[in-house]
Amino acid sequence: MGTLQKYFRQSATYKIFTGLYETFYDFVETLGKISQNGKQFVKCILKDGIDKNELIYQCYRFGVSSLPITLTIVGMTSVIVTSQVALEMVKQGGGNFIGMMMSILIVREVAVIMSGFAIISMIGSSIASEIATMRVTEQIDAIKVLKVDPISYLFVPRVLSGIIMMPFITIIAAAVGVIAGAITSNLFAGLSYIAYIDSAWLGIYMKDLWVSLLKSVFFGGTIALISCSCGYYASQGAKGVGLATTKAVVWSFVSIVVWDLIFAAAFFF
Question: What is the value of pTM for the model shown?
Fold first, then answer.
């Protein structure tokens, strides 16, 4: 019986199910910690207030420093999509709808989703690795010894910066995406800028703009909160820093996709 059990534990089936169980357990545990930190984050704002200087620095870090790569990703995505559909739509007599289609796509999804992906890759991973390094080098323990709440000191300015800056990033990214679509449709399909803009105005409603901005607020706050939480609970030295950073990136990607599905079901279904 012992030999059979030994062989079973070495089998691929056992390893697959064990991996799935560990992933699910890790997900539930991480979700619980993030929820607990989110609750503590609100309490710290109400109790301790906000360090304005640190908030300004984190806003600059979250918004300004990440803007070039964000605009590049959104702009290139718009160019790629427009180049593939504009010419075909003109051939089928649908050239007057290119601007409408691209503006809806960019404002509702591309600008906020691609901005979120860029922020995760550049800022979220940086936040997670920074706080994880502080954890494994016992800097967070030193903060506690000084009677300073780590949640208030580390989480509050970073999460607030995500909530504040993400809508501005989304607005700029959407504008760049629409402009890139106009230029691409003119170059690839010969569509005039006036026809593109007229069509774009027909496809954009205030509801689309408000939903996109509300979505960006949730995205920014969630990315920052997950990144801070994963870094805060890091362990095992340098290996733990790497694992915390990886976990922050993975769960941030998953979270914004889930948020996007929720918003789509709530406002557009």
Answer: 0.87
**% of the chain at pLDDT higher than 70:** 94
Distance, in Å, from the CA atom of 159 to the CA atom of 161, rounded to the nearest integer, reads 5
Q: Are 199 and 100 in contact, with CB atoms under 8 Å apart?
A: yes
Instruction: Tell me the two tokens of residue 243.
Output: 């694992």
Residues 64/161, Cβ–Cβ less than 8 Å: no
Q: What would the two tokens of residue 89 be?
A: 């739509």
Distance CA 94, CA 100 (A): 11
Closest by CA to 81, choosing from 205, 229, 224, 188, is: 188
Tokens read off for 5: 């059990």
Predicted pLDDT at 18: 77
Q: How many other C-beta atoms lie within 10 A of the C-beta of residue 103?
A: 24
Per the prediction, the chain carries an average pLDDT of: 86
Coil, helix or strand at residue 22: helix
